[in-house]
Amino acid sequence: MKNTSSFTSWLFLILLVVIWGASFVAIKIAIVDIGPAWLAAARLAIATLLMIGYAKIVNIRPPQGAYEWRIALILGIVGTSVPFALIGWASLFVPSGIAGLMMATHPMLVLILAIVLLPEEPPTWPRIMGLIIGFIGVALVIMGRTLAPQTDVITPQFDFSLIAYGALLLGALGYAINNVVSRRATSITHATRGYGALLTATPAAIIFATMSEEFPNISNFHLESTAAIIYLAVLPTWIATLLLYQLIAQTSSGFVALSNYLVPATAIILGAILLGEQLTMLQYLGFGAILIGIGVTQGIIRRKPKAKE
User: Fold this and answer.
1) CA pair distance 160, 165, nearest whole angstrom
2) pTM score, two decimals?
3) Which residue has the higher pLDDT, 68 or 304?
4) Quick check: 19 and 27 in contact, CB under 8 A?
5) Rounded to the nearest 10 degrees, what angle do helices 190-212 and 161-184 cross at?
6) How far apart are CA 178 and CA 90, in angstroms?
7) 150 domain-assigned
8) How many independent structural domains does the chain possess?
9) Residue 109 maps to a domain
10) What is the pLDDT of residues 36-64, one digit of tens each?
């Protein structure tokens, strides 16, 4: 039986939450010197090189056969490189805390996809109510953008912030597709799925960056942005993947799903501490509604049964 209360399991979960939460701050710092497309390509390329070396040491096999490579392409392009680029671009126009907060929609989007693609997981009234509550929260977060301070956010003549929220939702959708596809590809080990995702995501990200942005002038990089790029490559993109596999093996996907509540809060706190970001009260209320919606859909928040007379 898997132990979800061991010290090691909780330590791994806390490490993942901090690593993923800090990644949104790191993105905000890195895009000062590098475009979002090249940022995605750079972090993926470094992480892939590290993964190739690690895979040879511990004998993780790459995908084999047409089916496994098709899965790897979906996980790598739709579920990895595209969300990386979208979140990076959106971070040009919104605070890092908002980027992390919008990722809280991920489990709700997973549920919607599961209703369509996983017939063995039919919709229930609690799940439907949770989705409604959660998306009311998303609406509150987006409406609160017009009240948010704009001190450290790029403010061009055209208000790109609304499009940025859409990009963040698309990024969360990419992660949700990654989740659902992974749940259907049970014949492929977690490690091989992650390895294949990196192997396919990197060339796709490099091709997209080459077509959409000029190559960055590395000689002009600041120390902070360089450190942020290295952090994004080594910790959230590579180490976190290895920790995730280990945690799933030790516990369960339900235990790992606790990160859906903790990562957005961590991103908001770190954004406030490290970057001086502030969210509006409406956005905090929206965040609370999103968490309640997740809790209802996951069965964590449920109505107490009536006592028998």
Assistant:
1) 9
2) 0.83
3) 68
4) no
5) 150
6) 20
7) yes
8) 1
9) yes
10) 999 999 999 999 999 999 999 999 999 99
